[in-house]
Structure formats: structure tokens, C-alpha cells
Specification:
The structure holds 2 protein chains of 2 kinds. Chain A has a single domain (4-271), classed as 3-Layer(aba) Sandwich (Rossmann fold), CATH 3.40.50.970. Helices cover 41% and strands 12% of the residues of chain A. Chain A has helices at 4-25, 30-34, 37-47, 71-80, 121-134, 153-164, 185-189, 194-200, 213-225, 259-271, and strands spanning 62-65, 141-146, 170-176, 179-180, 183-184, 204-209, 231-236. Chain A is globular and about 50 Å long. By secondary structure, chain B is of the alpha/beta class. Chain B folds into 2 domains: 9-178, Rossmann fold (3-Layer(aba) Sandwich), CATH 3.40.50.970; 190-319, Rossmann fold (3-Layer(aba) Sandwich). In chain B, 41% of the residues lie in helices and 20% in strands. In chain B, helix 1 (12-23) runs parallel beside helix 3 (42-48), helix 4 (60-71) runs parallel beside helix 6 (91-99) and helix 9 crosses helix 13. The termini of chain B are far apart. The relative contact order of chain B is 0.13. Classes of the chains: A alpha/beta, B alpha/beta. Chain A binds chain B through residues 58, 64, 104-106, 112-114, 116-117, 119-132, 134-135, 137, 153-154, 157-158, 160-161, 164-165, and chain B through 30, 51-52, 54, 56-57, 59, 61-62, 64-75, 92-93, 96-97, 100-102.
Amino acid sequence: MRDVATLQRIARELRMDIVEMIYRAASGHPGGSLSIVELLTTLYFDEMKQSPENRDDPERDRFVLSKGHSAPALYAALCKAGYFKREELWCLRQIGAMLQGHPDRKGTPGVDASTGSLGLGISAACGMAKAAKIYQNHYRVYALLGDGEMEEGSVWEALMFAAHYGLDNLCVMVDANGLQIDGPVRKVMNVEPIDKKLQAFGFETICIDGHDFPSIFKAFDLARQTKGAPFAIVARTVKGKGVSFMENDASWHGSAPNTQQYEQAMAELRKGDAQS
Amino acid sequence: MKTEKGLEKQATRDAYGQALADLSSEFDFVVLDADLSKSTKTATFQKVCPARFVNCGIAETNMMGIAAGIASTGRPVFASTFAMFAAGRAYDAVRNGIAYPHLNVKIAATHAGLSVGEDGATHQCIEDIALMRVIPGMVVCCPADGPSTTAAVRAALQYDGPVYLRLGRLAVPTLYEPDQLADFTFGKGYVLREGADVCIVATGLMTARALDAAQSLWAGGVRAAVLDMPSIKPLDEKLLLSFAQKTGAVVTVEEHSVLGGLGGAVAEFLGEHCPVPMRRVGVRDVFGSSGKAADVLSTYHLTAQDIERTVLELLEQKKK
């Protein structure tokens, strides 16, 4: 599509769905959901070969939300892409709901990996990419990690595997919003410099503004052109992006807005005037 | 290799590697290992099918995630390492990555139990049956010999879902003829010896020892039945119930902690459906230690004599 205005509109709609979902559930993770909206919008509405109709196509692209707590963003994107009915969004985290607190591959159409226990999704993504190499499939695999998530040691086992097997069909994205539950990543357990560590592990990398569509396009183009090595996009993002009082505030990692906060958030998003 | 009694001997890990190789053209599956392929015997598969073998290095957690990812594309995966690392170190990846989405991954864990021997407690996994059994939807299978291992590998390929296959390092006596195992499925137990006085329920390498104990008991006038339970989950409840009712006394035998393994599974079932006097032979909630496998098994009271003594104590108590 590569139509920035359209993607911006979709991104704003996804943000509104995320806030609405979490408000109605009175539970969920808004901060890290809002920071990945441009990445998911580009993946589902431009980059990936996927649709509800081609789920059984062995050549469809795959996406793994390794930072599974940002499920509301994934659900909003999948819903808009037509994987399930909009009513499902409003049952998030409820008893009997299709949309679980963290992505459930078995129960939710469009979800490629069950994630939530941090550090595991990236391994599954590497497995999918390796399977394509073994069976000469041509699909691509996209995995989205949090920067805080990179504190999990098994992430580095997976990255080592990706480089060792030259998984150039794998594109890892790091949502580097700089915050985790207990505060700034740099203070809790510093993982920086992320790009240099990824390079040392054998990745081709690019650092971008994770909210800027042209930069995201360029990064995905580079990823597809890279041969013989896996590619990583370090996306510098703003946690809580789009809702002024949630931006850059770790306390919005895993708490739901009250009615007043919800109304303010929705008003800001409708206007699209919140700036970081 | 032969036992003193002339029985063939084979380690279940050897049978496993051979079964993977033998089935590699009949079934399309991928085999993973974590730098132990010569010990787990997945190297036997690698030799005949290198394209579908992936060494994950010493990174068991990632290996389970890789298994999940490959399985999600529609091919069964065998992931092998030592039981300690498969069930212990990689637990979260097995539970959340494989079992929760009910992916078609077979965790084939070798070097289970005390019979690892010399390596000692850090490598003697005596908790894996318990750890795997409590995961919803996980099949837990612990074959007693080579032929039942071969049957279990085939059954695992024919079953769509996660399976934990518990295998050993030590060469063990062959108890089955392959044709006895034609109907092998998860959830099926085998009557290896009929008897009306007491029922010994065994799994893994302890089944051969249970048979030795039963033979000695019969010589002393105690008619001991022996059930082999390769499938610990699902358990052959029907078979267990019929023998509990018939004998009124049950002894479980396993190379595993007495907590949560075969003994736990049998006690849970019989406690609810047919409470009868019972004893559990196994590791008494302690860590293992180094030594030759046979010596370690003796030290931790896992010999045929220990089984026999336990049976006699139980029958004595039952009389009171």
C-alpha cells in the first residue's frame, strides 16, 4: 500500500481500539501496545503476505509477538485485517473470551504463536524460519521483542541460532521504548547498546524511529534484501505513544485507564494531536 | 548384548535413535538436539537424514521454542536432550511454548533417573515424570525396553500433540517381542505376569526388576502380578482397577521420586476409585549421587530384592 496517510489513519484507529479494549476489560497493557502500533500497521497492511483467507497457505508470512503482553495491539490489527469479528475486542480478558490476556495460538485466528512468557516467542519465530529453510518454503517470519524482554537469557540463545543458521528469512524487531515495569530499562537492567549487541551476534541491523512509516518501509526493504544473515530493526519508540499522559510513563505498562482517563485518551486520539 | 539369563539387552536411547532412523522415510519429521546427539542417539537419525536434523547447541530452552516453531508449520518434531535439561531447565518453554498451544512436539529425554550413574545428582533427573505429568495435555511415556521404545516412537508420530518420552542410558533386558506391541497406544498397560495376591505396577527399567521380584515371590508362594505401564499419562485406569480389585494390594515401582511419578499417578487414581493398601518403590525424596549405575540403583533401594521386601511388608500389614 505504502500510502502513509492511510496507514496513519489505520494506526489511529488501532490505538483507539487498544484503549477501548483495555478500558472495557479494566485490565491489560496499554503502554507497550501503543508503542508498536506503526510497526504492526505496516506489517499487517503493507509488508506481510497474509490474510484470513490464506491461513492454510504454507507460503504465508508469519508474525510472532514475542512481547505477548502487547496483545491488544495485535488483536486490534488482526481484527482490522478481518481475522475475527469486532465484538470479540470488547470481551478481552473476560471469562470465555476468545481474546486471552496473552496471545493464544490455538484459540485466536491469525495468532501464529502462543506467547507471554517473555523470551520464548523469538525461539518459535526462529523455528518457523528454520522450517522454511529445511523445506524450501519462501515465507518470511517477523518477530517483535521488547527491549526489556531482551534481559531474558533465552533471547540470546535464539539470536545465536538465527545467525548460526543464516536465517535471512527472519526479521526481528525490537520495540525499544526504554521502559519496563519497574522503570527505565537502563536503570533496571541495561540491555543497551542493543544494535551493537545484535551486530555482535551476527545480525544486520538498522535503528529507526519506530513511529515513522517511511523509516519502517525502508527498514523492511533492507531486511528483505539482506541475504545470508538475519535482520534486526531496532525501533526507537515511545511507550504509551498517542495518549499524552501515558507517554514515557512506566506506570502505564500494565494498568487500565479509568473512565475519565479513557475519555481523555479517546479525545486525544480522535484529534490525533497527541505529541511525544 | 545379553543378560545373565540370556535375554537381549539394549538401552532405550539406542532403540530411540534407531527408530528415528528407521521411520525417517515413512514419516516426515524434524529432529532437534542440544549438543548431545551422540548420547541421545539422535546422531543415528542425523546419519541417514541430515537435512531434517538441527543441532541447537547447548541451549535447551531455545531448542524447545525452535521445536514449537517448526511444529507450528505442520511437521512433527522430536527434541532430545537429557531429561534433566528437557524437563527441568526448559520447563517454561515446554509448558508455555509447546503444551499450551498443544503443538506436535515429542520431547524425547534420555539419561533419565539414577541410572545415569557416575555423573551424579546434577544429571540424575528423578522429577521429570512429575513435572511433565502435571502439564495439561502432555502424554508421558516411559518404555521398559528396546521394542517398546520403538513402538512408542511410532505411536508418538501417529499422535497429534505433545509427548514426553522418558528414556534411559543403561542397557536393559528386552522384555517384549515386537508382535506383542502391535497394539501399542498411549494409555495402554501390559500384563507381564498374572497373579492374585499382589499387583506390582512398574515403568521403565524397573519393570525388568519387578519381573525378577515377582519370580522370587512366586517361589516363596506369593502370587504377584506384574503390570508394565509405559504410558503414565494417560494411565491404563481400567487395567489398574481390575488388578487392584483382584489383588487388593498394589506396589508401584519406578526409577523416579516417589512423589508425583507413577506412584503418585496410581495413588491418585486408586485413592478415588479403589483404595487398597499400597506401597511405592522409588527414590525417597532425596537427590542421587555418583556411582556405577547398578550400585546407585542398589544404594537407593531400587533392586528386585527391595521390591520383594516391600511386597512382603505390604502383605504383612494387610493381614493385620
